[in-house]
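Chapter summary example.
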Amino acid sequence: MDLLHALSSNLLSPAVLFFALGLIAALTKSDLKFPESLYASLTIYLLVAIGFKGGVAINEAGLGKVWLPALAAITLGALIPLWTYPLLRFGGKFTAVDASAIAAHYGSVSAVTFIAATNYLKAVNQPYESYATAFLAVMESPAILVGVVLGKLGSKRNGPLDLATLKSTVHEALFGRSIFLLVGALVVGALCGKAGMDKVESFFVTPFQGVLALFLLEMGLVAGRRLEDLRKVGPFLLAFGVVMPLLHGALGVYLGRLAGLELGGATLLGVLSASASYIAAPAAIRMSLPEANPTYYLTASLAITFPFNITVGIPIYFAMAGWLYS
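The structure predicted for these 326 residues follows.
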């Protein structure tokens, strides 16, 4: 009954309902469309806001509390592609480059799923470590690097992994727009601290929920247009996009417990582990592994895993944490 209550509370939250509204608009062929500039602006705002707030929280908590769970997050982000790649390569019969591209997306993380999870925890009055944004910042790049290296090593058509290719991959993984904004804002917040937050709170805190609702409306439109691609990706990838998040979510919650996080923080680490990137990873993969089929990795992350996580996945990971901490 607790899980059912948690599911209903999440499904009736404004963020999820706006996502559903976008899905309906896409499925009914509505002419609703966001200008590209508005979508980019909403993305920048959300990344800067969550990064800045996370940096302020790190300033208040101190690095002594952050380093161990952050190390667990980095390790998990780097390892997920290593076991998802062979599963996709040999179980799903994907090519080396497609398997590595999908694996990179699932090792990397979704900022919007993380935001939805923090909203959910607030709605159920579950406290969590305010510096958890640091986990989001450090998990995004390692999986992209590992995924690209796997793709280069596994595909003869791409040739050897030369120094120039590795250098460009590292640059994109570390300085791509989403990672640069997230990590940069986190550093700014860590330097400014609470005094800095007091000066910009009316901009980064008060409008945040409204901006998130608009962004998820757009995400609903994009995901709805991708639903037709489900026929192309097949039942294996459909199952992969649901089962792997559940397994990764459970592992993330467990590692959070080992790293000393409270129930809420462990839930967020589980959510990040279960999420799949659709902003940073696609940009890096498109540059480093151009032969990878976007239908596979975008449909899996955006049309399967993302809707699953923000509707039913987050309450499930919270229930997993509740069971583990009971």
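To summarize the output: The chain has 14 helices and no strands.
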